[in-house]
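User: Show me a protein chain along with its predicted structure.
Assistant: Here is one chain, sequence first, then structure tokens.
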Amino acid sequence: MTTHSLGNPLLQVRLTRLLRCALLTVPVIFLQAGCAKEQPASAREGLNSAGRVEQFAQLPDWSGVWHLVGSPQLLEREDAPAFMPGIRNNPPYNEEWEAQYTKDLVNAEHQGDPNWPDQITDTHTLYCAAGMPHMMAGPWDYQFIASPEATTIIVDKESRFIPTEGRALPPDDEMWPIIRGWSTGHWEGQTLVVETINVKEGLWGDRTPVKFSSKARYVERIRSIDANTIENQVTITDPVALTKPWTWTKRYARREAGTWPSEPAVCGNPEDRNPIVDGKLQVVLPGDR
């Protein structure tokens, strides 16, 4: 009978290869098993199962392209005239935040004026993105893509992912303030209830410098009020900036069937008529290029 010693170099190479294969294969097997357990019911039942079809049948019809009803100037009004001096929101600010809003309103009226000493630039121009809550109250096209597990809202070149399958928000040490915030949602009948937190502080809420802290909490109740109109009732609670919750409502009208979404706005390209130079907004007329 032939015996093999571990001192044999050829045997050592073979054993090393076997060990490597085992180390690589075992985690994959367990990972695949874990993934199989994590699959949603829809994946196990099949995309065309009767149960899956019924889940979609319970959702509202938000297909197509939608557009904001009324003026995008203010969060709290649909009829506010655009870019008129003195036009403002009336959130229940505390004294400190009201004073800052009043000051910012004056400076905002001189946006683009190189001779104004305290010029400020709207954050939509700075980030080339509106963020929350401005993105839900702007003059852009909207798409609401609902499924049983999540709803995605596409606004211009921005998007919001709203899981509705029951997941919790990430832990605090994995969640930082971002311009769209972090959202979760659930359905109450055919009303989508969305809670958003950790929105980046200092974003303009509309075309005026109405701002909120990163501690603000946004609760939206999104529902169809007729076949071609979606209503979004938004309540903002901010323990840093507001003395009580502030609620306002926006509506979106379905555009004609077959409408393509408008081309997203772009910033910082050669065609940009409002470049930012040395931190100040510039206004460049077409004839000055």
